[in-house]
Amino acid sequence: xEYLNDKGLLLEQPDGLYKFSSDAIALGNYVQCHTNDTVxxxxxxxxxxxxxxxxxxxxxxxxxxxxxxxxxxxxxxNLDLNRKRLTATKFTVITTDARQLHTQLRNQVADVIxxxxxxxxTGKKSQNAHKNLARHDDTLSPTELATLCTKNVKYGGIVxxxxxxxxxxxxxxxxxxxxxxxxxxxxxxxxxxxxxxxxKAKKGxxxxxxxxx
Length: 213
Hints:
- This protein is of the alpha/beta class.
- It has one domain: Rossmann fold.
- The chain contains six helices and ten strands, in the order E-E-H-E-H-E-H-E-E-H-H-E-H-E-E-E.
- The strands form two sheets. Strands 5-4-3-6-7-9-8-10 form an eight-stranded mixed sheet.
- Strand 1 and strand 2 form a beta hairpin.
- Helix 1 packs parallel to helix 2.
- The protein is globular and about 40 Å long.
């Protein structure tokens, strides 16, 4: 059992499932939404982003989606752990391939989409299948993420996501091709330098990007 913030938000992560990192916490705290919003959490895992967004902003509803049934089962348990503090939000947990989500939901249902995507495209894979689903982008490439976002978010809606900082140019191009405008990029650094970019993209709108550090 771990605390996700200093307000007592709890998360349980069984051995064998992919463990969340500080990147997920940073993304969850970067997201902004309103109390009347519908939010979709793509690749929700055990619920770090779902829980942080609900606790920080109390949106009307959150639809949490993951291809891994073990992760969504644990997410339901984590929602139950925190049920007394998250009563303002309606939660829907769906176990499916997010690339097919539009076939289960009414198209362009979301005001906000958030995703901490799998972004490793090289390197040796783990023997743990749960970790491979969470880490390697053959389960959800940047192009596939942009495509599913445009199918599920309203015009003028916002998408928050992250990728390694060395992929900024590629990610901007991919999302521009799906009619998204990158409105903000927040750079995260460690002792080795800048390593991660948090993105805020808007469906439609003008070309103006703010850099945050």
